[in-house]
Amino acid sequence: FDLTAMTRVNRCETDPKWEFPRNQLSIEQTLGEGEFGRVLRARAFNIGGQSGYATVAVKTLKNDAGERELADLLSEYQLLKEVSHPNIIKLLGASTVPGGPVYLIIEFAEHGSLRNYLRRSRHLQTDIHITTNRLHNITPEHYDEPKICEITPKEILSFAWQIANGMSYLSDIKLVHRDLAARNVLIGTGKICKISDFGLTRDIYEDDAYFKRSKGRVPVKWMAPESLSDHIYTNKSDVWSYGILIWELVTLGASPYPGIVVQSLFHLLKTGYRMERPENCSVALYKVMRSCWSLDPEKRPTFSDLSIKFEKMLEDEV
Ligand code: ACK
C-alpha cells in the first residue's frame, strides 16, 4: 500500500489551535491547479470566530505530489500562523489529521489573482470564460456582480503601495518571500491586495534560507541576479521581484522579458540590460522599477522606502 504524500503527515503538525473539523467544511469547486497543488472553493461553518457559513479557499495537494511539495505546504502553514497584516492572506484554519489530505483553509479573495485580474481588465476574449468559471454556483449574497472593470492609474499605484506595505511587514519580521509575482497576489473585497503563496518563504535566520531548492520550478524572470547565480535570497532580492511586479501592473499582466529565453537572461542582466519603459508608464514609475533592478542589492530601495514613495505618488495623483 503506497501512501501518497498527502497522507504522510506527522502528528506534530496537528495544531489544536488551528485544526478545523472536516465535517464543517463542504468543498464546492476547484479554483485553480498547479503542477502539484490545487486550490478549492469551499463553505466553512463557524470558522475563525465567524458564526454561520463563510466562503473560504482551501489549499491542498494533488495525489502525485511528493515530499517536497508536502514540506512546502506545511512550511506555508507554519508561516501563515505567525503573520498578521491586512495585505497578507489570512489563515483561517487547517485540517492535518493523519491519514487524510492536508488542507490549509485561507480567506477567499473574491477577485482572484492579481495577474488574472489585470488581464481581465484588458477585456480579453477569454474573460467571459474565466468569469463564468469563477462565478459558477456562487449565490449573489456572497459574491459581487462580475465586473470587468478598467483599471485606473490610481488603482495601479494603490496596488503597488499595498503590496509594498505587506512586504515591508514581512521584512520587519525577517521573512523573505522568494516568489513575489502578480500570480501570487490575490485581490479581495474592496480591491485589497493580499500577498499569498508562502510555500517558498523562509526565515532569513534559517540556515538554508539563502539556498534555493535543487529541484522544482524556479521563477527565473522574477529573480534577482544574485539569486540566479549564488542562490542568495534576501529582502533585497524580494525588492527586485517587486520591480518586476510593478512592470506586470503597468502592462496589465504581461509576461516579463517577452521574447527572451530564460537561459540568456542572467548574462543580459549582468551586462546591464533591463526591460524598457512600458507604454503608458510614467517616467517616475519607471525610475522606481529601475531602482529595484540595481545590480548591487544595497542600492535597491527597502520596502519601507517603496511604501513611502507610493504613498507620495498617490497623493500627487488626482
Ligand atoms: O485568478 P484565479 O481565479 O485566483 O486563479 C488562481 C487559482 O486559484 C490558482 O492559484 C485562485 N485562488 C488561489 N487562492 C485563492 C483565494 N484565497 N481566494 C480566491 N481565489 C484563490 C487564484
Give a concise summary:
The protein is of the alpha+beta class and 318 residues long. Helices cover 34% and strands 15% of the residues.
Q: How would you describe what is shown here?
A:
Residues 25-318 form the Protein kinase domain. ATP binds at residue 59. It is found in: Membrane. This is Proto-oncogene tyrosine-protein kinase receptor Ret. The chain has 318 residues and is of the alpha+beta class. Helix content is 34%, strand content 15%. Strand 7 and strand 8 (192-195) form a beta hairpin. The chain is globular, with a radius of gyration of 20 Å. The protein starts with 24 loop residues before the first strand and ends with a helix. 2',3'- cyclic AMP binds at residues 31-32, 39, 57, 89, 106, 108-109, 112-113, 116, 134, 186. The site of 2',3'- cyclic AMP (ACK) has 13 residues, from strand 1.
